[in-house]
């Protein structure tokens, strides 16, 4: 179900200038009229018109959609009847659920995602109301474990290191588990279960048919309290220090790619999970190779004779060189493919090696070479060969 938290504060029918009983065609007609009159292209520099255009578009996105409109109408009806207060067997405006069956998250966008370090701005009204409507007054929430902070760093690799993969040492400064208490924060190593919330991390209060829950202020929703804090970390379970780790960079990373190492970030408080380490990889260009996805590209200089007569040339790869056969009459600029000699991929496979041949013209010829070349040029003419015979410029 697609809903928005801000629906509660908006009057979309008024924004479109129609009544709540307007038909679909009336709503569409009103929106088109407002959009046409207030479009920014027709009102350059008019901020008020731009705001009216945006409001109309937002309103039509909701009440112009049958499913969203039904949810919006039900929500507004419930709010007009007194919000979330009261109990009873049903709710006005079409709600036929009892308090036992009704979950406020059904109206406010489901259970939304949460950030890994508590509440996020995108977690929806479920994060606010959470266990507002729970079963039998018992909180639906368990304690939410916190975690250490994520850490980002950057490295620069040579082209071949990135293509083949490598292992590099890194030094990181930040929160790490306390060596004295092994990250627990407790001198004895045994944090005490919070008495205020019985270890759940939330306190509950029943009011009539509903149960309300909130993060426990005594333990900060962790479910535990430190009664004998460690003298080294003062109960936090972490100390700030520099540590060395070895990072394995997988084969085939590209420039700008981020490699995630789970659990290698800063330590969480009181033995909670560590954050993640994100390594941004920069790759230096190579003088010989280039990449096209998993294919390795190389341009090899050759002579005219090698292309005309055919030959076998030696071509570099990421590992040992390979032999590539040039068929007689190979045109300049042709690309030949060598299977499986490109960038390594998962599953013990690899991309291909793309070899492009490029004629290298000699700058200086001795007398013998010049004489031979002139004889060849004459032989070409005698045979009727012209390199521009099918060239577009001769059309």
Can you put this structure into words, describing what you see?
With about 400 residues, the chain is an alpha+beta fold. The chain has helices spanning about 10-15, 25-40, 45-65, 65-80, 105, 125-130, 160-165, 305-310, 365-380; strands at about 150-155, 165-175, 190-195, 200-205, 210-215, 225, 240-250, 260, 275-285, 290, 295-300, 310-315, 320-325, 335-340, 345, 350, 355-360. It has three domains: about 5-80, Orthogonal Bundle (Helix Hairpins); about 150-285, Ribbon (Chaperone, DNAj Protein, Chain A), CATH 2.10.230; about 290-380, HSP40/DNAj peptide-binding domain. The chain is built from nine helices and 17 strands. A four-stranded mixed β-sheet has the order 10-11-17-14. Strands 1-9-8 form a three-stranded mixed β-sheet. Strands 2-7 form a two-stranded antiparallel ribbon. α2 (about 25-40) runs antiparallel to α3. The longest helix has 17 residues, at about 45-65. The radius of gyration is 36 Å and the shape is flat. Mean pLDDT is about 80; it is low at about 85-145.
């Amino acid at each position: 179900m697609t809903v928005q938290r801000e629906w509660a504060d908006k009057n979309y029918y008024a924004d479109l200038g129609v009544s709540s009983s307007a038909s679909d065609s009336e709503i569409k007609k009103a929106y088109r009229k407002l959009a046409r009159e207030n479009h920014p292209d027709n009102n350059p520099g008019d901020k008020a018109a731009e705001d009216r255009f945006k409001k109309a578009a937002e309103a039509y996105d909701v009440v112009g959609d049958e499913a969203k409109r039904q949810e919006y109408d039900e929500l507004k009806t419930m709010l007009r009847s007194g919000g979330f207060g009261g109990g009873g067997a049903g709710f006005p405006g079409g709600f036929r659920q009892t308090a036992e069956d009704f979950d406020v998250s059904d109206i406010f966008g489901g259970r939304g995602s949460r950030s890994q370090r508590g509440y996020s701005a995108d977690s929806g009204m479920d994060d606010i109301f959470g266990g507002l409507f729970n079963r039998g007054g018992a909180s639906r929430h368990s304690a939410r474990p916190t975690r250490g902070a994520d850490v980002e760093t950057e490295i620069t690799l040579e082209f071949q290191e990135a293509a083949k993969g490598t292992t590099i040492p890194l030094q990181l400064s930040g929160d790490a588990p306390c060596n004295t208490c092994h990250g627990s924060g407790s001198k004895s190593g045994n944090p005490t279960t919070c008495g205020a919330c019985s270890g759940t991390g939330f306190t509950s209060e029943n009011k009539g048919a509903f149960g309300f829950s909130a993060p426990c202020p005594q333990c900060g929703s962790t479910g535990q309290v430190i009664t004998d804090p460690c003298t080294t970390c003062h109960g936090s379970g972490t100390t700030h220090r520099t540590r060395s780790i070895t990072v394995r960079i997988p084969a085939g990373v590209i420039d700008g790619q981020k490699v995630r190492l789970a659990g290698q970030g800063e330590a969480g408080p009181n033995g909670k999970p560590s954050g993640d380490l994100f390594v941004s990889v920069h790759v230096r260009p190579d003088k010989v190779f280039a990449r096209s996805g998993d294919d390795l590209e190389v341009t090899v200089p050759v002579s005219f004779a090698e292309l005309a007569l055919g030959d076998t040339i030696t071509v570099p790869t990421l590992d040992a060189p390979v032999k590539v056969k040039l068929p007689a009459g190979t045109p300049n600029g042709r690309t030949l493919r060598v299977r499986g000699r490109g960038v390594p991929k998962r599953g013990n496979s690899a991309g291909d090696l793309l070899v492009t041949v490029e004629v290298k013209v000699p700058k200086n010829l001795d007398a013998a070479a010049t004489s031979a070349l002139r004889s060849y040029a004459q032989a070409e003419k005698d045979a009727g060969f012209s390199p521009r015979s099918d060239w577009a410029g001769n059309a």
